[in-house]
């Protein structure tokens, strides 16, 4: 196997427990794994060398929340929101219509294009959700196609109740849709997915419906994740913790009790700054979560409605500027936090044995993500 030494690193972030950051460092990659980390002067010889140019080297970002299986564009909605209209979950149904009308090739090409944007901006592990098909066939092809792009595939048949179950063209009640999700749709999707997710929110699914859907997924061997507390306070956070969900995402409106429950659990609180930015909602204050001892992740929530960004650097800048993160906490949330939200131990850090997924920055420190917002400071993206 070929070994590679990365030299001339001004600042190396490994997230090692004893020494999470080191200066004047070198790192050796062997067979796609981190094989050696230490002071530059002690670096062993390797087959190849990469000069970091006095830049900073960090773990690749782990984006634990992205909706990439869709077609269409909703720039008009964004424009209207910026002119004063509020965000409602129902806009999802527009994307559902466009997604159903797309061919497999179009769906996959759009998702692959977004994956390549994500990667070029440093995300080396990406979760992909379904949720814009909302029929057995359209959800099945969404998770099946997503599985060709990432191992972190999430079945989100419970994104919203599709229009045909509300206007009586297929059935006259939402219970019939929940029956479909936990029955035939879950059977078709579970073989291609690792996770099940529910949009537990006013306008989407109630806490009781969410419980039924998540429990059905768990019984099929899927891990649970929950969208909750995006539009207001809800019992969704407590449901997520009770069911042992890996992550509860959004948390725009968290109560003190929610934070207490999260801090005493291994459910990660995943914050999505792109959503508050794109919907003009108030940013959650991460200090409440971090001071209580909760594990926090940052993710893009890339989707065509409420957060159409593929840029984790943008999320870091907003997180530091508006959510109370220090630059180090934001980086940790976007790497190690995302890995925890996907229950992955091999990514999100550069300790010995980690996957060699890393970013070489054209900057002496990762602080530049927030200090120089919008500037493309990622020079190289390496992944195992
Ligand atoms: Zn989402």
Care to describe what's here?
The chain is an alpha/beta fold and 384 residues long. The chain has two domains: 3-59 and 349-382, Urease, subunit C, domain 1, CATH 2.30.40; 61-341, Metal-dependent hydrolases (TIM Barrel), CATH 3.20.20.140. Helices cover 35% and strands 23% of the residues. α5 (174-189) packs parallel to α6. The longest helix has 17 residues, at 104-120. The site of zinc ion has 5 residues, from loops.
Which oligomeric state applies? single chain
Strand element count: 15
Gross CATH architecture of the largest domain:
Alpha-Beta Barrel
Helix content estimate: 25-40%
Strand count, sense and closure of the main sheet?
7 strands, parallel
What's the arrangement of strands in the largest beta sheet? 7-8-9-10-11-12-13
Number of helices: 13
CATH domain class of the largest domain: Alpha Beta
**Strand/helix succession:** EEEEEHHHEEHEHEHEHEHEHHEHHEHE
Instruction: Categorize the overall geometry.
Output: globular
Summary keywords:
single chain; 384 residues; alpha/beta; Urease, subunit C, domain 1; TIM Barrel; 2 domains; seven-stranded parallel beta sheet; six-stranded mixed beta sheet; 15 strands; 23% strand; globular; binds zinc ion
């Amino acid at each position: 196997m070929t070994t590679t030494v990365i030299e001339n690193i001004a600042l190396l972030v490994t997230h090692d427990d004893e020494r999470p950051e080191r200066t004047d460092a070198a790192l050796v990659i062997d067979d796609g794994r981190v094989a050696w980390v230490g002071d530059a002067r002690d670096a062993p010889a390797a087959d190849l060398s990469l000069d970091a140019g006095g830049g900073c080297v960090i773990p690749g970002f782990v984006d634990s929340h992205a909706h990439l299986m869709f077609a269409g564009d909703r720039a008009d909605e964004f424009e209207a929101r910026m002119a004063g209209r509020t965000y409602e979950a129902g806009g999802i149904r527009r994307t559902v219509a466009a997604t159903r009308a797309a061919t497999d090739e179009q769906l996959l090409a759009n998702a692959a294009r977004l994956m390549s944007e994500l990667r070029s901006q440093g995300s080396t592990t990406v979760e992909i959700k379904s949720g814009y098909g909302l029929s057995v066939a359209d959800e099945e092809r969404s998770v099946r196609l997503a599985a060709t792009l990432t191992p972190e595939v999430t079945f989100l048949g419970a994104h919203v109740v599709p229009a045909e179950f509300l206007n009586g063209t297929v059935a006259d009640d939402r219970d019939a849709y929940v029956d479909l999700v936990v029955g035939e749709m879950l059977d078709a999707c579970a073989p291609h997915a690792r996770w099940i997710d529910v949009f537990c929110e006013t306008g989407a699914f109630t806490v009781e419906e969410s419980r039924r859907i998540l429990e059905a997924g768990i019984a099929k061997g899927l891990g649970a994740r929950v969208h909750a507390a995006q539009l207001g306070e809800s019992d969704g956070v407590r449901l997520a913790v009770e069911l042992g969900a890996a992550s509860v995402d959004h948390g725009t409106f968290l109560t003190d009790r929610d934070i207490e429950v999260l801090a005493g659990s291994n459910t990660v609180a995943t914050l999505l700054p792109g959503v508050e930015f794109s919907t003009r909602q108030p940013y959650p204050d991460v200090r409440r979560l971090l001071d209580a001892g909760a594990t926090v992740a940052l993710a893009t929530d890339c989707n065509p409605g409420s957060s159409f960004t593929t840029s984790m650097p943008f999320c870091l800048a907003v997180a530091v500027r508006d959510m109370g993160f220090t630059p180090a906490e934001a980086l940790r949330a976007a790497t190690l936090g995302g890995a925890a939200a996907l229950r992955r131990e091999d990514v999100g850090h550069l300790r010995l044995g980690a996957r060699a997924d890393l970013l070489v920055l054209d900057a002496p420190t990762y602080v530049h993500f927030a200090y120089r917002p919008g500037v493309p400071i990622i020079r190289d993206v390496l992944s195992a």
